[in-house]
Amino acid sequence: MRPALLDPLFAPASSLAGIGPKLAKLLMKLTGSEDEARVIDLVFHAPTSVIDRRLKPGIAHLPEGAIVTVEGRVDRHQPAPSRSNAPYRVYLHDETGELTLTFFHAKADWLEKSLPVGETVVVSGRAEWFNGRPTMVHPDYIVPVEKADTLPTVEPVYPMTAGLSAKILRRSIESALARVPVFPEWIDPAIVAKQGFPTTDEALTALHNPRDETDIEPQAPARRRLAYDEFLAGQLSLSLVRSRMRKARGRPVRATGVLSDKVRAGLPFQLTKGQQEAVTAILEDMSQETRMLRMLQGDVGSGKTIVGLLAMLAVVEDGGQAVLMAPTEILARQHYEGIAALAENAGVTVSLLTGKTKARERKEIEAKIASGEAKIVIGTHALFQDNVAYHDLRLAIVDEQHRFGVHQRLRLTAKGMAPHLLVMSATPIPRTLVLAAFGDMDVSNLTEKPAGRKPIQTVTIPLERIGDIVGRLRDALAQGKKSYWICPLVEESEAVELMSAEERYETLAKALGPDKVGLIHGRMSSTDKDAAMEAFRSGETRLLVATTVVEVGVDVPDASIIVIEHAERFGLAQLHQLRGRVGRGDEASSCILLYKGPLSEMGHARLSVLRESNDGFRIAEEDLKLRGEGELLGTRQSGIPGFRFGSLEAHGDILAIARKDAGYIVSKDPGLQSERGAALRTLLYLFRRDEAIRYLNAG
Ligand code: ADP
Ligand code: MG
């Protein structure tokens, strides 16, 4: 249960005075909350810059364009002549000169009340010079001189969302801040002292009350404290989950090799050294009394699937069941087809279970899963719905793990009696991120590509030359080649995205021959998707127009060209993934990035990296540099939580300390029973890492 201390922070933001339904909705959008914005979301909404109002040079010396504060006596009002668009003007002076305040569409009575003639007032806003006269258009603040101290000297500036006013957001955050309690100290006192950390409640107050620009920087003490809290919560939750997983006595898998030898014998290729080593490491892990927790990293096309299959066969040899979970239906089906064909050589039946499996069939498969007759099960999230009960699940493999959340992974592994866990990732994650996201999970890398692969030639071509490309495609198809055509991402709307894919399909079908061109997108029924994939695989169609549904994992080895339209709209990692659809066979392949100029500096850098490198690890590192890890990890569903305060670049030193401390805590107080343990539970809830606590209680 969440400590009562935190209740005020987890109340809906609408429980704060002045936040009605409309504002609550805006705040939900602003904070990216799933259901509703909570008080804590406002408290955690950090400013990104400041407005400094301390500059008071006197009217005659106002610097053009600067934010300034002026104290002066109001001399006269010059209302706008009726029916004119001219502004309402108010004049005031100090000992150096006269300032014109300019208001458009202003309410005269409000101006008369707030700027009474003969009174001294303080105004703050942007100074501008017109015809040699200093002016201020719509001052941000107007206060009587007696209340000068209510004027904020340094104001935080927050990331905004359309329709929200800065003043209202600031006010909302202020009232949210008033709910912050005094937290128990959860950091080791020696670390607090050494780092000179303020307390968390002090840090939150300081976060929203910057005194100058340096308070906004990542190295400001308040920011470092919050970053440390965030890292500690993350690392602790990982350590707890991990120690539970480890401790749950794994059941050693005794592989006989009977089945895997048969499958190996049927392979049309030799395993690479990396694949061989990965298989060895996995079998070794699974033969232990503790649970396997291993990540298999390998660039697109490096051949992770076969490694996964050999691991699953080892489990089947020992009489157990294994599942492989993929993030999309297309990918699950493709794995199913590929794996079923190989497993047939060993007489092992493979089942497929996805969200689209028909009710009757689903019943049958579920029954087979429950009886243990289904040895290898491949599917999507459907694999761990509540009604799926496994007879003896011994190994769970998660493909393209970055697509899944930690929750989902936990749920899947909660299914069996402590199944071993292997996650496979084609998006190479830099080492620092692996540590941040998974703690010290074991990692196998497939660094080399299977033999005989030719490098993919990548070119960038402006969209205006699309006609040339279509001409070149015509020649290529005539030579019997196969090509993908990836349609642009449309951020705003899936419907528009679909339309553009359909349109592109029409024009290409017309240009290249309707029977040669196929179309696949996310809205098609699975039967239609299958048919489209199958037609392309078999060569009936030679050009497949697709949305990003083919991004991950799709494997048609003899496709050798990929055209990506509006490449500038895609992220680097995504482009690399897409490119990985070709270069999977022995044919020389090419990737054509069609871009719409002019490119932003970032867009240019992205496409250059891609043109120059085929190495997923390098690309991931470059991506990290270009975007910062926040964005790389940004999406919540990525399973690698993005950081709110922490930055791997700026705070690498304290991340290392947090990791070490988390490991120490879990070794000393695995149930978080001590006084500090209780404080740490509060920390986990505060940063919404409490899934780990559930784990702790369940154990
Ligand atoms: P990914 O790592 O991207 O999941 P896949 O497992 O889909 O890669 O493998 C890509 C392609 O390479 C498949 O067609 C697969 O059959 C083939 N492949 C895998 N291992 C080898 C190998 N050692 N030699 C040649 N081809 C291989
Ligand atoms: Mg794959």
From TrEMBL:
* Source superkingdom: Bacteria
Residue span, Helicase C-terminal domain: 472-625
Q: Supply the alphabetized keyword list.
A: ATP-binding, DNA damage, DNA recombination, DNA repair, DNA-binding, Helicase, Hydrolase, Isomerase, Nucleotide-binding
Q: What is its EC number?
A: 5.6.2.4
GO molecular function list: 3'-5' DNA helicase activity; ATP binding; ATP hydrolysis activity; DNA binding
InterPro entries to which the protein is assigned, alphabetical: ATP-dep_DNA_helicase_RecG, DEAD/DEAH_box_helicase_dom, Helicase_ATP-bd, Helicase_C-like, NA-bd_OB-fold, NA-bd_OB_tRNA, P-loop_NTPase, RecG/Mfd
EC main group: isomerase
Q: Which GO terms describe its biological process?
A: DNA recombination; DNA repair
> What catalytic activity is recorded?
ATP + H2O = ADP + phosphate + H(+); Couples ATP hydrolysis with the unwinding of duplex DNA by translocating in the 3'-5' direction
Question: Would the keyword Glycosyltransferase be found if you checked this record's keyword annotation?
Answer: no
Helicase ATP-binding domain boundaries? 285-446
SUPFAM superfamilies xref list: Nucleic acid-binding proteins, P-loop containing nucleoside triphosphate hydrolases
- One Pfam family here: Helicase_C
Q: Which family does it belong to?
A: Belongs to the helicase family. RecG subfamily.
NCBIfam families with a match to the protein in the record? PRK10917.1-2, PRK10917.1-3, PRK10917.2-2, recG
Q: What does this protein do?
A: Plays a critical role in recombination and DNA repair. Helps process Holliday junction intermediates to mature products by catalyzing branch migration. Has replication fork regression activity, unwinds stalled or blocked replication forks to make a HJ that can be resolved. Has a DNA unwinding activity characteristic of a DNA helicase with 3'-5' polarity.
**Record's protein name:** ATP-dependent DNA helicase RecG
The UniProt gene name for this protein comes to recG
